[in-house]
Amino acid sequence: MSFSGVLVETAMNVAFPILMKQFGLATNTVQWMTSIYLLVIYVIVPLSAVLKSSFKTKQLFVTANLLFFASLLLDALAPNFAILLLGRTI
Q1: Are residues 49 and 62 in contact, defined by beta-carbon separation less than 8 angstroms?
Q2: How many angstroms separate the CA atoms of 3 and 41, rounded?
Q3: What pLDDT does 22 receive?
Q4: Taking every pair of C-alpha atoms in the chain, what is the biggest distance, in angstroms?
Q5: Do 66 and 30 contact (CB within 8 A), yes or no?
Q6: Which residues contact 86 (CB under 8 A, 6 or more apart)?
Q7: Crossing angle of helices 2-14/16-23, nearest 10°?
Q8: End-to-end CA distance of the chain
Q9: For FRET with 34, which of 3, 15, 27, 61 sits at 20 to 30 Å CA-CA?
């Protein structure tokens, strides 16, 4: 999972020029996407230990997948970058 996290972060950094061109954004706006992603990871990692001790693995797995598909749907229907960013964070 650590490798996947580093891979996604690197892919986001490499994609900055493409995201800036596609959405017509400034560099600092796209950099916020990486910052928010890292903050979410910073919160989720320690929280996962608490969640694992409080809930069954199946419940966590199902919830994580439902959130993933909900954010994927939100991204697909997003009319602008702010909603797209929210979907990525979820």
Answers
A1: no
A2: 13
A3: 86
A4: 44
A5: no
A6: 74
A7: 50
A8: 17
A9: 61
Q: Write down the residue that tokens 């929210």 correspond to.
A: 86
How many other C-beta atoms lie within 10 A of the C-beta of residue 54?
Answer: 9
Structure tokens at 6: 């580093």
pLDDT bin (cut points 50, 70, 90) of residue 55 is: very high
Which letter does DSSP use for residue 24 in this model?
Answer: T
CA–CA dist 90, 72 (Å, integer): 9
Token pair in block for residue 43: 């919160």
d(CA 7, CA 87): 19
Give residue for tokens 């199946």: 58
pTM, to two decimals:
0.59
Q: Side chain identity at 80, as an amino acid letter?
A: N
3 token code pair: 């490798």
